[in-house]
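sorry for the late reply, my laptop died twice this morning and i had to redo everyting from scratch. anyway the thing you sent over, i finally got around to it. pasting the sequence first so we're on the same page, its 157 residues, then the predicted structure underneath. double check i copied it right bc i was rushing
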Amino acid sequence: MEKKKRKRGFTLIEILIVIGLIALLASTVLVAVNPARQFKFARDTERKAHLSTILNALGQNLAENQGSLKCDGSLATLPATYKEIKSGSSTTSFDLGPCLVPEYLAKMPFDPGYVGAGFVSEADYDTGYSILQDTEGHISVSSKSEMTPLTDIVLTR
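ok and here's the structure:
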């Protein structure tokens, strides 16, 4: 009597079904994790940390100078309306670098998603953030949010 040899292994159909199931599970996980949303959330968290860093450095400057902001050895006044924090002088910006770098900050933090933001030196930077001091003396720094584009991230002290 002759025995039939049976081949062991998977059929093409079985392999295709397994590949299909893996693809379905992978796409479900990608949709659930939503990496684009996670990156936006991470950049907004970084913005909040940067704004807090700027406020802390400003607080140190003000504390050391009895409530006055000192920049390059002279007193400065924070703007009463939101102005961009960047180098140079214009009607739409406030140069905060000389007040904080290098004594209170090694470099000015900048918005991770703002086109053109960066720090080269105290005299050449653009943070992508804005600052103001209201009539009650509260200092606010703000940034555009990626998670909620119609809402700004604002920290006040």
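The chain has a mean pLDDT of 91.
thats about all i looked at so far, will dig more tmrw
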